[in-house]
Every structure is written in structure tokens, then in C-alpha cells.
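Project outcomes to date are best conveyed with an example. Our students and postdoctoral researchers have been running inverse folding experiments weekly, and each run begins with a structure described purely in C-alpha cells. The record below, which covers 433 residues, was selected by the lab manager from last quarter's runs and is presented without edits.
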């Protein structure tokens, strides 16, 4: 049988990794698919990378790859959403299957892209877009297809988890760890995407669509980064038996779907609390199977290439069977995608860790508890830490679940008290039970 020709658009960390993996495992891949898979054409906009490209057509015009009649599958790994969108839509229009690692593109333009692919009868595969080498897309779309999924919670940004781990375990400075993550090829081209939770929100948007059968709605995701976290809060959380992780949470409730990324206190004895370094993990709660956990490397050349090449294998098998893959892009049939609303953050119910700087005077704690109780907020634990800078003491409170709207009002009243210094630190808390 004639080989399948792959065109790769972009040869950075992921594209270069995929090229090497296709080459290194060529014999094994041929045994798996019954076809030889060869990279026939690559498109690179800038200087030629340090890769062996003998026998491969190299174009500086990346559209030459998607317009090449000999290319069967286009791998889009340039990132970004402008040119990448054009590349993917053009490849689809030309009747080519697409493999992409581009979470931003899918979270923002996936509805348009999947509709175009369905019209044209081609497939857009995107295992590498979420959690690097962890096959969570296949899990949600196929492995858990029997279940109604209640919620999922994931550590889905390797760079952020690497930074939090190094800061906690080795006391390293934020900027220093981020620079290392960039050198290791983990970080996005713009690393604020990693540390401000935007990358995780892109991925969560995709996971939520697959879990609940809803359109991709990145604009409605609540996003909060890790840049404001202090070592103080990390160590107070540890003393209380919690770890702080940057979680993406998608939950089905009676009134809508929660879609939120923020630092989160979770009990230290949960498996996911012990996911460290660049590793990612996604915990999925489903009705029949119960909780399942998926863990592995979330970024880097090898793990991401593993997912890209697995997608190529799926498409090659479908090409060989002469039928498009039959699993719907968003796990549910396109006509059955639901219009369940995404909840605004102020309607989300969760528990909280609060840290207040209070003047060491009689009656301050009474004021604090009065305000919380007037908003229906029950206290789970309260700890006072000795003053580090003279007059103020740190008061740490853990609350029972309450709707965020009431917590916002309570925090505004707490901050208005003359005996409370500075802003109140608020970190959301989840039991993941
Ligand atoms: N910047 C991303 C991360 C790469 O750190 O998780 C993988 O999507």
C-alpha cells in the first residue's frame, strides 16, 4: 500500500518532536497501521531548525503544505490563532485531515473548525491540545462514553505546576523557575498564558465540551493565575493539611455548568495533590465508573509528540479503512450539543481559605465572624498567627461552601473594617470528594 504523506506546519518543540518520533518509531507505526507514514513536506516561516530534513520538501510559505496535493494529513503546530486558523480551514477546504496541538485555536474557534470539518467529511484530531501526553481526549470521547460525567478537575498546565512545585519544595523564586520552564520548552510563546491561567482555561474549555456535550465557550471561563500566590499562603495551607494547586474545574450543576481556573486548596492526601513538576493530572467523576484519574507529562517535545503521532495513527487507520473516523469531534453527535448555560463565577458555590491582616485588638475577630455570619457563611476552622511586622496578626479562616456572590459581599465589608489592614486574600477550596 502506498505510504501516507504527512505535512507538518511549524517545526518548534512539538513539530520537531513529532518529526523525530515518526522517524524513530517508523517500523512500529507501520506495524500498528499497516501503512508507512512519511513526512513529505514541512512549512517553516523562519530560519531552518537544527533537524535532519533530507528528502522532505521544505517551504517557507506554510500554505504550500496545505495546498500540496500529495499531502494526506496536515499537522498544525505553529500555535497562535490567526494564521493557524487560516491554515486549518484551508487544509479542511482542501479535503485534508488535520492534527493539531493548538488548544487556543480550538477553544476560541473550534465550533467553526469542527463544523467545517464535518461539512467536508474530514477529521480534526487534537489529543495533544490538552495535558500533553496524557490521552484524556480519547478517555472522555471514547473510554468514558457510557457515563454521565458529573465533574472533572485537572492540573492542566505543566509550566504552572512546575513553578508551584519548585517554589514549594526548593524555595526557588518564581521568575527563576519560569525561565527554566521556558528553556525546557514547556512554556507558551507568551508565558503569561501559563501563569495567568489562560492556557489552562483553553484546555478546560475543550474538556468541558467533551464531558458535557456543550459548544466551546472559552469567553465564559473564569480565569485566575498563580502570580499572586505567596509562600505564606502555601505554608499556612500545608499546616492545615492542604496543598495549593492551579486547577481547572468543570462541574455540572442543576443551574448550569461551572467553568473555572484558579489556585485551589485541596486536601494533601488526595492523589492529585501529589502531582508535581511538569506532570498533569485530570480527575473525572462519572456516574457508572466513579472517580478515575489520568496522569502523565503535560508538556515537552516527547510527550506532546506522543499525542500528535497517536492522532496521526488514528487518521491513517481511518484512511486505510476508507472511512472518516466515526467518533464525533466533541464526543456527542453535532445535532445533540446542548445549550446548558455556563454559570457566572458569582453563582459558583465553593469553600474558601481567607487570610486577613487584623490589628491585634479586642473585638476584631468578633467583627469578622459577625460579618461572615450575616452573609450565611459558616466557619470550618480559624487560626491566628503571631505578628510578623508589629501590630497586625494573620487570621486564617476556612469556610464551609457558600455562593461566591455572598463571599464577595462579605470580603468587601471585611476590607472596609478599620482594624483590617490591606486586602483579604481569598483562595477557593475543593474537597474533590
Ligand atoms: N505551556 C503548556 C504547559 C504546554 O505548560 O502545559 C502544553 O500544553
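After processing, the design step wrote out the following sequence:
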Amino acid at each position: 500500500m502506498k505510504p501516507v504523506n504527512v505535512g507538518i506546519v511549524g517545526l518548534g518543540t512539538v513539530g520537531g518532536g513529532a518529526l523525530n518520533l515518526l522517524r524513530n518509531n517508523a517500523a512500529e507505526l507501520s506495524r500498528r497501521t499497516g501503512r508507512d507514514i512519511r513526512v513529505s513536506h514541512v512549512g517553516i516561516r523562519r530560519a531552518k531548525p537544527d533537524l535532519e530534513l533530507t528528502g522532505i520538501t521544505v517551504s517557507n510559505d506554510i500554505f504550500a503544505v496545505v495546498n500540496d496535493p500529495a499531502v494526506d494529513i496536515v499537522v498544525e503546530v505553529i500555535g497562535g490563532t490567526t494564521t493557524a486558523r487560516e491554515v486549518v480551514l484551508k487544509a479542511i477546504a482542501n479535503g485534508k485531515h488535520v492534527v493539531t496541538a493548538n488548544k487556543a485555536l480550538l477553544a476560541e474557534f473550534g465550533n467553526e473548525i469542527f463544523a467545517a470539518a464535518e461539512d467536508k467529511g474530514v477529521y480534526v484530531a487534537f489529543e495533544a491540545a490538552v495535558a500533553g501526553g496524557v490521552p484524556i481526549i480519547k478517555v472522555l470521547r471514547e473510554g468514558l462514553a457510557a457515563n454521565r460525567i458529573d465533574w472533572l478537575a485537572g492540573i492542566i498546565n505543566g509550566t504552572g505546576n512546575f513553578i508551584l512545585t519548585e517554589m514549594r519544595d526548593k524555595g526557588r523564586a518564581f521568575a527563576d523557575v519560569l525561565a527554566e520552564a521556558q528553556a525546557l520548552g514547556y512554556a507558551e510563546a507568551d508565558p503569561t498564558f501559563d501563569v495567568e491561567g489562560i492556557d489552562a482555561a483553553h484546555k478546560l474549555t475543550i474538556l468541558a465540551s467533551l464531558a458535557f456535550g456543550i459548544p466551546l465557550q472559552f469567553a465564559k471561563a473564569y480565569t485566575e493565575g498563580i502570580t499572586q500566590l505567596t509562600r505564606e499562603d502555601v505554608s499556612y495551607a500545608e499546616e492545615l493539611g492542604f496543598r495549593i494547586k492551579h486547577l481547572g474545574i468543570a462541574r455540572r450543576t442543576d443551574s448550569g455548568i461551572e467553568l473555572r481556573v484558579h489556585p485551589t486548596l485541596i486536601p494533601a492526601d488526595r492523589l492529585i495533590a501529589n502531582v508535581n513538576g511538569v506532570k498533569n493530572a485530570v480527575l473525572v467523576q462519572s456516574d457508572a465508573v466513579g472517580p478515575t484519574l489520568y496522569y502523565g507529562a503535560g508538556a515537552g517535545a516527547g510527550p506532546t509528540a506522543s499525542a500528535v503521532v497517536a492522532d496521526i495513527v488514528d487518521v491513517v487507520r481511518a484512511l486505510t479503512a476508507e472511512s472518516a473516523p466515526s467518533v464525533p469531534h466533541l464526543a456527542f453527535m453535532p445535532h445533540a450539543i446542548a445549550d446548558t448555560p455556563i454559570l457566572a463565577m458569582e453563582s459558583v458555590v465553593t469553600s474558601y481559605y481567607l487570610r486577613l491582616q487584623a490589628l491585634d485588638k479586642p473585638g476584631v475577630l468578633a467583627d469578622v465572624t459577625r460579618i461572615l455570619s450575616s452573609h450565611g457563611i459558616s466557619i470550618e476552622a480559624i487560626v491566628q498567627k503571631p505578628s510578623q511586622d508589629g501590630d497586625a496578626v494573620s487570621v486564617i479562616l476556612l469556610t464551609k461552601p457558600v455562593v461566591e456572590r455572598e463571599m464577595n459581599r462579605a470580603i468587601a465589608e471585611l476590607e472596609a473594617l478599620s482594624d483590617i489592614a490591606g486586602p483579604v486574600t481569598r483562595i477557593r477550596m475543593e474537597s474533590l470528594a
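The radius of gyration is 24 Å. Residues 132, 157-159, 186-188, 194, 199, 298-299 surround L-homoserine (CB under 6 Å). The training component of this project remains on track.
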